[in-house]
Structure formats: structure tokens, C-alpha cells
Amino acid sequence: MKLYMSVDMEGISGLPDDTFVNSHKHNYERGRAIMTEEANYVIAEAFNSGCSEVLVNDSHSKMNNLLIEKLHPEADLISGDVKPFSMVQGLDETFSGAVFVGYHARASVPGVMSHSMIFAVRHFYINDQPVGELGLNAYTAGFFDVPVIMVAGDDQAAREAEALIPNVTTAAVKETISRSAVKCLSPAKAGRLLTEKTAYALRNKDKVKPLTPPDRPVLSIEFANYGQAEWANLMPGTEIKPGTTIVQFQAKDMLEAYQAMLVMTELAAQTSFC
Question: Pfam families, from UniProt (predicted)?
């Protein structure tokens, strides 16, 4: 049994704000160590529960945060960018399930450091379904017929996962007070919770169905500023919905929709406000 792990950073216990997740700020090295420790609890229990292979994809920012020298020695790690499929790089139909660790809520909703890829984004939609990073990644897993069996992160990410994926196991390692304040489990308590939930998720994986994406999905991205929409609209095949900052793209499948999202957000990030 092969398990896929996508590990983000904002949903790791003990990390309340960007000083822990921004490589230029003073708490970042502490954040990396705690992130690696949380990933290891999940990896260790995955092997203990019968997995033959665990592939870990570092999924935060420049995607080189996990400390490989501290990572469980039997896991394989994808690190660095640019990756054609970003947070789900390496995921394919050979995996029995996927787990998302350190995840946060989508943009424009409550949650610790909630956002969707870049701060220019207000909302992502696949057809009419609002999604964040969690949803886009789950739909991409579903394209390969792989169920997302567990999501770990803050309480709002857990709620988002439960609303989107029936029977998914969630592990809330911290509780939102505000976007930059949290009530956290200690690393030891978080580890016990992650171990317990990983074992449960693997025992019950057959109760979770893949989140099947539409055959020809329409990706819509609502931006905060019209200039961002203009930049995103430079990608061929896109159009700005009149009177809005929403840019739409008709994709041939979920993989194309995912890569379109990457291109559109990278373009929108070029916007100048001066």
C-alpha cells in the first residue's frame, strides 16, 4: 500500500503567524523543525499500519522547508520548486490514499493564516464549487481515483475538509482564535493525535471515495484587484467576467485546470499597486 503526503505549513501546531512560515523571519527555523516532527508522526504510523511506501511532497512556499536529515528515514521526499503540479507533485493512480498535513482554510473565511495560494485570491471555484488549496488538491487526487483519507491542520481546515469529502478523517491540532492567534496542542499531544488519526484513516480508507472532478471543469478565480485580473487574463483561453474581478478558464480536465491556476496566480502576483 502506497501513501501520498502533501505537507503544508500554516496548519502545523504551534505556528500562529507568518514569522514561523516566512523564510526571512525569525521563527522560521523553529517552524521547520515542528513541521518535520509532525510529518514524522504521520509517516511512522503509516509504516506501522502496513504502508510499503510513503511519498512526502513539501507543499509550502518554495517547497524546501522539511528537514530531510530529520525526516523519517524510510520516506521519500519531493522538495523544491518549480514543480508542474505544485502541492500534489508526484501523485498518481498508484497510490491507495492521500493525506494532507499542515493544511489551512481557504481565502476569505476564518482560519489561521487562511489564504488560497497567493493573497491576491479571494475565491477559487471549480464550476460552482468554492475551493481552496485543499479542494483543488483533493480534486486532482480524485482525477487519479485516489481518495484523500485524512486532513490535518487547524480546526477551520478540518471543517472545510469534512464539508467537501464525506467520511474523511480530520485531525485538528490547533483552534482558531483569529487569523494570527491560535490555541495549540503541544507537539507531544499533537503527535499522539496525528498517530491515532493516521491509524484510523488507514483502517477506514475504503469508506472514503475519491473527490471526482467534473469532466471539463471551469476554473474561476476571483481576485482582490482588477489589475490582478488583467494580469491573469494574459493567459490564453481566459476571460474576465464582465463587471467583476473573476477570471474564468474552460479546462479540458482537472490537470489542465490545476496548471491554469498556477499560471494565473503567478501572473497576478506581478501586479504593482504603486
Answer: Peptidase_M55
**0.90 cut: is pTM over it?**
yes
Residue 235 vs residues 23, 106, 156, 231, 271: alpha-carbon distances, Å = 30, 24, 32, 8, 14
Helix (H, G, I), strand (E, B) or coil at 118: strand
- What pLDDT, in 10s, does the model give residues 105-149? 999 999 999 999 999 999 999 999 999 999 999 999 999 999 999
Q: How far apart (Å, rounded) are the C-alpha atoms in residues 96 and 233?
A: 37
Cβ-contact 32, 66 below 8 angstroms = yes
What count of Cα atoms within 13 Å lies in the side-chain half-sphere of residue 93? 3
**b/e for 139-165, b at 16 or more Cβ within 10 A?**
bbbbbbebbbbbbbbbbbbbbbbeebb
In whole angstroms, what is the distance from residue 203 CA to residue 206 CA? 8
Cα gap 108→132, rounded to integer Å: 10
Sign of the four-CA dihedral 101, 60, 250, 226 = positive
Decide if 8 contacts 87 (C-beta within 8 A): yes
* Owner of C-alpha cell 484513516: 201
Picking from 67, 41, 68, 43, the residue whose alpha carbon sits closest to that of residue 55 is: 43
